[in-house]
């Protein structure tokens, strides 16, 4: 049974559910992170109410990559077959130089599936969001739209951000409508601009000065002819990169074009405009430039992350997903981390549930807090470093290319820490990889830069 409501904006409204008992858990935010957490906690027997500010559930953007550390969880949830049916299981991931188009390195994704026991999958965001939403409906999550949380408060007062409150052994949120919702625990999955994050830290999103354009191309168009839709490809270039892969069983080609905006670097407000898109890719190979007319030119995503924070839990209020750890997207782990957060929390709720069904929420939140921030810190810092590596120009670009060309295709030391089973305790967190310095590149494999080369930094 599921409940779906639109929040009633009456000033004296107390619960969206019109008199239903308080849930065990309130999840704020119906993105991929919030839906994943709501499903995970519901399947552990908790009554979950999800509050989403938008008038309807949905997800914008095009494709999303799901590595084995996510498909393993979808499998545990019983959702992997449906996800496979909606997406594409590619056979290879390939990195190419964006200037000359040559291949730098590749991962054999069939071999990778054998190594990690679960596939690498690419899927349309709206299909993944719809899949999780349907799973929440089937599980009985109480889904409330039009419910914008303006404050959080813990039981007995304590620090508060207007509208989130730790209260009476639980926590309370206040809505823009003036109503309040109380539960044993509040999970704030409210994204990059999280209001709840203010309970824990006074920080702001960090601009990378990079911007993304996205777009999909129907497979019947000439642009797609000759493209292997079973490959996930990134062309890396000076101050820019271009990603493409197939979606929806090969019906669509997904494209993402990302570049550093000179206007952003100059401190201008109007940064990331389509003229900058064309200029940023002017020095790239024909395949990349030919993809630019197919980007959605009326939408763009400016790339922000935040510095990692070590504490995500405040009393009975916990951050999850981008509210806790918004990354730059270069290692494609943002939504995955959010889905892992929900799975880890659900597993600890199960471990801290008594036979009578009561949960030791403080213990479950402490176990979540003990393991997730360090993993996500690693992902956030690696994503920044990976982006710098992708966007090199001049001699460093040539050194990078030489290091990547020398890499053994079946060397998994760079992804073992990511793609293996999600750690439930700090001792299960695998060691990090050891970075290879660019200076280790064989000098004989690093040609001199040519005059007028793009991005000679
Ligand atoms: C170009 C690009 C490519 C990416 N590629 C990948 C990829 O391949 N793989 C991957 O894993 N990740 C990828 N990511 C990252 C990923 O998209 C995000 O990390 C992920 O979607 C975050 O999910 P979330 O649910 O935490 O936050 P959001 O998706 O931001 O969801 C937050 C939700 O909370 C709601 N909300 C906000 N405030 C309130 C409030 N006050 N009250 C009620 N509701 C509220 C919002 O309306 C929204 O629905 C990419 C990101 C970008 C920009």
UniProtKB/TrEMBL annotation:
Keywords: FAD, Flavoprotein, Monooxygenase, Oxidoreductase. GO terms for molecular function: FAD binding; monooxygenase activity. Residues 24-380 form the FAD-binding domain. Residues 1-13 have a biased composition (Basic and acidic residues). Its cofactor is FAD. Gene3D superfamilies: FAD/NAD(P)-binding domain. Residues 1-23, 438-457 are annotated as: Disordered. Coiled coil: none annotated. InterPro entries: FAD-bd (IPR002938), FAD-dep_Monooxygenase_BioMet (IPR050493), FAD/NAD-bd_sf (IPR036188). This is Putative monooxygenase. It comes from Actinacidiphila reveromycinica.
């Amino acid at each position: 049974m599921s409940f779906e409501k639109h929040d009633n904006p009456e000033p004296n409204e107390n619960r969206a559910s019109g008199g239903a008992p308080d849930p065990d858990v309130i999840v704020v935010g119906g993105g991929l992170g919030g839906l994943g957490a709501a499903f995970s906690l519901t399947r552990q027997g908790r009554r979950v109410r999800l509050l989403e500010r938008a008038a309807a559930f949905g997800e914008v953007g095009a494709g999303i990559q799901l590595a084995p550390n996510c498909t393993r969880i979808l499998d545990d949830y019983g959702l992997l077959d449906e996800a496979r049916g909606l997406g594409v299981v590619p056979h290879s991931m390939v990195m190419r130089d964006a200037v000359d188009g040559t291949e730098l390195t590749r991962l054999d994704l069939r071999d990778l599936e054998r190594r990690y026991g679960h596939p690498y999958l690419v899927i349309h965001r709206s299909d993944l969001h719809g899949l999780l939403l349907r799973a929440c409906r089937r599980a009985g999550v109480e889904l409330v739209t039009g419910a914008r949380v303006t404050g959080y408060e813990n039981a007995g007062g304590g620090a508060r951000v207007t509208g989130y409150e730790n209260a009476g052994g639980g926590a309370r949120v206040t809505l823009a409508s003036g109503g309040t919702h109380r539960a044993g625990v509040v999970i704030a999955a409210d994204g990059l601009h999280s209001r709840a994050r203010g309970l824990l830290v006074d920080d702001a999103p960090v601009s990378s000065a990079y911007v993304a354009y996205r777009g999909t191309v129907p497979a019947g168009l000439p642009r797609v002819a000759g493209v292997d839709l079973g490959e996930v490809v990134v062309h890396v270039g000076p101050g820019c990169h271009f990603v493409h892969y197939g979606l929806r069983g090969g019906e669509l080609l997904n494209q993402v074009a990302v570049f550093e905006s000179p206007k952003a670097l100059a401190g201008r407000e109007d940064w990331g405009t389509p003229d900058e898109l064309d200029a940023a890719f002017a020095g790239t190979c024909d395949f990349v430039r030919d993809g630019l007319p197919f980007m959605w030119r009326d939408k763009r995503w400016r790339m922000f992350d935040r510095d990692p924070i070590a504490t995500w839990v405040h009393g009975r209020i916990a951050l999850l997903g981008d509210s806790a750890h918004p990354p730059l997207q270069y290692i494609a782990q943002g939504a995955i981390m959010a889905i892992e957060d929900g799975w880890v929390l659900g597993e600890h709720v199960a471990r801290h549930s008594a036979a009578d069904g009561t949960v030791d929420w403080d213990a479950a939140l402490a176990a979540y807090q003990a393991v997730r921030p360090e993993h996500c810190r690693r992902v956030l810092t690696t994503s920044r470093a990976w982006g710098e590596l992708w966007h090199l120009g001049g001699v460093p670009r040539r050194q990078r290319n030489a290091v990547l060309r020398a890499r053994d295709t079946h060397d998994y030391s760079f992804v073992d820490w990511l793609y293996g089973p999600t750690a439930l305790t700090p001792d299960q967190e695998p060691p990090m990889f050891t970075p290879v310095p660019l200076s280790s590149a064989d000098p004989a494999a690093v040609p001199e830069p040519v005059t007028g080369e793009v991005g000679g930094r």
